[in-house]
Amino acid sequence: MQNIDLAKVLETVSFIQNKTNFKPQAGVILGSGLSGLVEATDIEHSLEYIDIPNFPVSTVEGHGGKLIFGTLGGKKIVLMSGRFHYYEGYNMQEVTFPIRVMKYLGAEILMVSNAAGGMNAAFKVGDLMVIKDHINLFPEHPLRGRNNAEVGPRFPDMSEPYDTALIKNAHQIAAANNIVMHEGVYIGLQGPTFETRAEYKYLHIIGGDTVGMSTVPEVIVARHMDMKVFGMSVVTDLGIRDELNVITHEEVLEAANAAAPKMALIFSEVLQQLA
What are phi and psi of 264, to 5 degrees? Predict the structure, then answer.
């Protein structure tokens, strides 16, 4: 049984606050190969995950291992360069632990990005998709176990997991900068295998436009704590296509890196428009 360990969260928050008095307005999570956002950030301080008490350590190529404090779009952010995944062997409390730390450091908004497989015929490799909703197909839930009412409600409402006002702003920013940006539904799966051709078809039939192995647990935990959420997928491969469906992690990283500057611009300007 997994329970929210608030004492561990507060211990980690205290450690970070002893290293820096930085108070973030937003938390940002980078997906595979999306380090372009780090380059766009005016960095004031950074901590290695390995040095932070209670933090897991990312084991995936293309994911950094630092908690970065800085300014993006004129707003103070805490940025995870490298996230944690259920498929790495971590439980859901470990995967989502940094989100709780971000909230207790002061962040009221979570911005998440991911490299994802495209299942919509209108999508091309390198396109961006702002996430309007998600389907949770993970075998474990990050809120399973005894709830701590001090942290959030037993039954959080998920009717609007991604903030509609932030989505509207993103569309305006993309249009003003001639950036192709779709809107759609993200499906979160356990991984680590890429999907079979039949699975891609099934996932599209049930309503998915992109699919990946992250994001959903972090968003659930953010909404549990009443954080606003903005999410974006970079389409790094096409799951439904005529030719042989061979996908490599290297190709995913390459496509993500190419699209990262466009995503960084949208994230930056969405932040800039916050009150």
Answer: -60, -40
Whether residue 1 is contained in a domain is answered as no
- Residues pairing with 110 in the sheet: 27, 229
Q: How many domains does the chain have?
A: 1
- Cβ pair 255, 261 in contact under 8 A: no
Look up the domain containing 141 and give its range.
6-272
Per-residue pLDDT of the chain (275 residues; tens, 9 = 90+): 467 789 999 999 999 999 999 999 999 998 765 667 788 889 999 999 999 999 987 665 544 688 999 999 999 999 998 889 999 999 999 999 999 999 999 999 999 999 899 999 899 888 999 999 999 999 999 999 999 999 999 999 999 999 999 999 999 999 999 999 999 999 999 989 989 889 999 999 999 999 999 999 999 999 999 999 999 999 988 876 655 555 566 766 676 677 888 888 999 999 999 87
H helix count then E strand count, the chain = 7, 9
Looking up residue 81, the CATH number of its domain turns out to be 3.40.50.1580
Helix (H, G, I), strand (E, B) or coil at 60: coil
Both tokens of residue 165? 């006002």
Taking CA 270 as the corner, what is the angle to CA 221 and CA 47, rounded to the nearest 5 degrees?
Answer: 55
- Whole-number CA gyration radius for the chain: 17
